Each structure stands twice: as structure tokens, then as C-alpha cells.
Amino acid sequence: MGGPAYDCLTNPLGAVRFSFGNALSSGYDPASSHGKDWGVADLFRHYFSDESAISQVPILDSSSIKWVQPNTLVRFRGMIQDMLGNEFYAGAYKDDSTWRTNKYSDVSQFPDASTSDMQVWERRLLYCVPVPGQNQWTECSSVELRNRFLDLTGQNREKRARVDEEMTDSMDSNTTEAGLNGSPFKKIKAGEGTSSASECLAPSSDGAPKSSVLPPATSKDSLPCLVKVYDSPESDLKLNDVVEFLGVLTFDPNTMMDTDSSDANTDDFSEAESVQMPSGKVPRLHCVIHRKLETQHFLHGSSLLTELKTPQMFKEIRESLMKYLTGLLGNDHIAAELLLLHLLSKVHGRVDNVAVGKLSYNLTHLNKESMSIFGTQLRDALKSLLPFTQSIPLTVEYLNTASLSPKKDYGTNRLVPGVLQIADGTHLILDETELQPGTLNSVGVENANLLKNLLECQKVEYDFQYYKMEMATDAQMLIFSEGKSNIMPADMVLPFQPSQVNPLQVITPEAADAWRCYLATCKSLSHSIGQELQQVLENDLVAARQTDRSLGSQDLSRLLTMARMMSVSYGETTLSLEHWQMVLELERLRKERLK
């Protein structure tokens, strides 16, 4: 890993410069390349080709930001909350006759005499936040990461000190001698002179103007990040994607917003004031490589990911998880079976306005008293099993006042997040047991419709003032209510019938890891229905419809979804007759309760 000229982990910019020099010697021409990658991404992909190598890179969060060093390599795991367009920057310049690059850096250096040879390139800006509702068990230990990182960096401390000294001397001399005031790009220094191609521009690191707006993060302790992306197609990353960005950190904790002074050097080329985010509050990450994250990526070093192969293993873990869920639900086995199917559901296709694979679940016969026992225990259990969970109180007051839909603010040119701007795979608990008679105002009616549309179509409406746009999502929705919910008409409705209140179960870390791995693995399995069983299903569905004329196409689709979930819950990728019959029996027992 690495080589004598650089260390990708502790001196990533050295690796960039080294590969740039190699590319130049191989014929790379900065004047005609438009900043196209010269091999940096491949270099870092090779260096971090496995999980053990990636795990050495510190994760940037509110804890690690206190000790990670600028210009080192970090990872940021988060959701793309807003897309701020593209920005221009001084990508390469000639120092005498030698080409040099500023790529993956906020500090743009160039001698004044060489401005005619300076190349202006482009990069994308993404405002990212920790995933809303992310649970604590998914996060790496900051202390462990710090110690691991310091151990590694200690091996290269002397080398790093020399490199840092050389970089600092080079920056200081270039900045002093450049004669920036005489350059048409005089503010291309420390990220100041970047300019956007879409009027949505890069932040200033020297301070923000009076109109500066710092977007809300998910909580006061969460750390947002401005990610600068290079050499990636626009279609590759989209709003609300959960991504791990690996790149160079630039962060100045001493830089604070100066709201009482204006920037005397502001000119037409400077960035739009409305999206200023000072680097002392929002660190920048210059992305070298990235990957979209699935639930499996949040399972820390679980050996089960490779071992969970045989149906017997799936069956054993399923049994232990079912025992746990049944105990939580007061020995209501039917409620626990349906809950497991619900937890394994995900949208795997869309036909017109139908989200295929969703399986919302409404547990009824719950009141304030039973919610305080069973609801609280179940909520806590799901937090410990699933990576992203949120709870929404369905009360008149909440619906009348909450901001559920994300809204575009054209004054700041920012997307203001709403409660329903969530990542795919998020589990939502909607508690209707506190609902009292009252009147919904216009906001309340709109919020109720938003939730209903999310439940039925798995889409969230975003408000862009002049128009509204539906964004597809994938959320598991569990509703608690006294009677069948009218606000949230779920796919599966079951009257809750606990027989006793069980003492809290003590769960070992090994069991919790096994259940998390089981749920993630089952959800990722592909599934099909063999030809020999298709005729059986067709006959059974026709017979069911003849017995109950009220059955519609949605009910039949739900049965097929339940069959899929039942099959993958045993680790099977093809539906068997046994699992189909288990679903029909479960449905019969559910309907009996509804009578």
C-alpha cells in the first residue's frame, strides 16, 4: 500500500501531485483535459480496495472533527440533503514551464505571470448531512478510530512533518508572490474565488456575509459537510442517496461567521452570498472516490455477512428473532409474524403509480396505556435492529404545525429539509393513539395527504413554490392506533391481542449483531416464483376471490408480497409451496381477528 513518494492515507495531496506528475510524463495535457481524471480515482480505489483498508480512514463526525487534521484523508457517511450546482475553480497552472494542479484543494495557487496558462475547471457541490434517524449502533467508536489513525500516522510522522513544512512554505511563497490583486481571478485563494455555473456557488472560508444562511442539520450534535465532487456523472448521485465519500478534508475551526463586517474584496466573480457556509462550521471534503451505502455497510465487521449462507442458519436466526419479537408483543405470535414480514419489505419495482414490495402494517387495539408498555418496548427494539428509524406523532397539533415536506427557499437558494426528507430504508412509526378530536387547518390537511401518499405510493411531494415535484422513496411504515386508522390505510391491519406483559429481555451483542445481519441479508436477496408454482398461485387467488368478492387487485398483490417476504425470511430465493401455504394460513388467522 502506498509508495515511497506518498501515503494515500496521511498525505493524499502528495498522492494527487505524484500521479499528476506521472500523467504529465505520459502525455496528459491540462490545457485540453478540462480537469478529466488522470488516474487519481484508480490509485485510491486500488489503495482502498477492501474493507480493512477503508476502515483505517477516520469517519468525519462531530467527535472526530476535534482531532482529525486538515489535508488528511477522511470518510463522510451521510445523505445528500441538497445539490448546490457546480462551481468553477483554478484547476491547473504553469509554474515557469511546469504544470501544477490545485485539484482536490481549496487553496488555489498560481504565479501572477502565468494566468494566461491557468486552466479553469468545474466541480459539483453537494450539501450532505448525517442520515436522519440514524441509530447509534451504526456508528464506529470515535476513540477506537482515533487510536487506530494515530498509530498509523505515527509511523509516518517525521515524513509528514517534512511534507507539511514543504507544502506550507510553497503555499506561503506562492500566495505572497502571486500578486493576486492584478489577476482576474484574484479571489481564487482558500476557496474564495470559486464561481458557480448555476448561480449556486461555493462557500467562502474567510467569513460569510450578512445574508449567510447555515442550513439546519438533523440535530445540534450532527455535523454537516460540503462535499466537492470531481469526475462523476450527474446521474451517478441523486438527492437523498446515502453515500460514503472518501476524500481530502479542509476545515478551519477558527474561522467563524463575521456578521458585522462585509468583504471589501467582493467582486462579480465571487460566489452567491445566499449559500455561504463558513469552513469553521461546515467542513469541506474534496471527494476522491465514493460508494453508495446499503444496510450491510453499517454492520461493523460482522463475520455473519459471509457465513450466512445455508437455509439452516437463516432458520435458526429467524427462530431466535421471532422468539424475541413475540416476547415483546406479549406472546402475540401472529402480530410478530406479520411484523417480521413488514421489517423485510422494500420497494423493488414500480408499475405506474404502484410501489411493488411495500408492506405497511397497522396494529390496532392500542391505547395510551398499552402504548406505554408495548409501543415503547417495540420502538426501542427497532432502534437497536434497524439503521434508520423515526417516530411521528399523529396528533392534530403536530399535523397542523409540522414541516413534513421539503421546501425550496429561493431567497437563500436552498432546499429546506422537511421531516419526510428521509433515506431509502428508513423505518417510520406513526403513533395515532394520542389523537384527540380537533380540526385540521390547511397545513394539517396537506400533511395528512403527504403521509397518506407516502404510505400508498411511496412518494414524497417536494414544494418548489412555483411547482411541486414527487420524489420516489422507500419507507417502512408501522402505525399504532386504537381502531383501524382512517388517516393511514395500511396494507396489513391486525387487532393486537397480547396475553401477558413479559419482562424485558437481555440481548447479547452477538444476538443483536446476528439479527441485524439477518434482516439486512434477507432484504438484499433476489426472489422469483418458479413456473411450476405460478399455476398453483393463480388457482388459489381465483378461489380466494370467489370466496370473498371484496378482494381487489391490491389484496392479491399484498399476498404475493407477503409470500416473497416469507420466502426470503428463510433465506430462500424461490417461492416454495410450503411458504405460500404458510402465508395463506397467516392471512386466514389475520382475517379471523378482524371479524
Topology:
Layout: H1 12-25, H2 30-33, H3 40-47, H4 51-54, E1 73-95, E2 98-101, E3 119-129, H5 142-154, H6 157-177, E4 195-196, E5 225-229, E6 242-250, E7 284-292, H7 304-307, H8 311-328, H9 333-343, E8 349-351, E9 354-356, E10 361-364, H10 368-385, E11 389-393, H11 396-401, E12 407-409, E13 414-416, E14 426-431, H12 442-457, E15 459-463, E16 468-472, E17 475-480, E18 492-495, H13 509-524, H14 531-547, H15 553-569, H16 577-594
Parallel strand pairs: 5-7, 10-17, 10-18, 11-14, 14-17
Antiparallel strand pairs: 1-2, 1-3, 1-4, 1-6, 3-5, 6-7, 8-9, 12-13, 15-16
Describe this structure in words.
The structure is a single chain. Strand 8 (349-351) and strand 9 (354-356) form a beta hairpin. The model is unreliable at 156-218 and 255-275 (pLDDT under 50). The protein is built from 16 helices and 18 strands. It is of the alpha/beta class and 595 residues long. The protein has helices at residues 12-25, 30-33, 40-47, 51-54, 142-154, 157-177, 304-307, 311-328, 333-343, 368-385, 396-401, 442-457, 509-524, 531-547, 553-569, 577-594, and strands spanning 73-95, 98-101, 119-129, 195-196, 225-229, 242-250, 284-292, 349-351, 354-356, 361-364, 389-393, 407-409, 414-416, 426-431, 459-463, 468-472, 475-480, 492-495. The N and C termini lie far apart (66 Å). The protein is elongated. 34% of the residues lie in helices and 18% in strands. Helix 15 crosses helix 16. The strands form five sheets. The chain has a five-stranded mixed barrel with strand order 1-3-5-7-6. The relative contact order is 0.11.
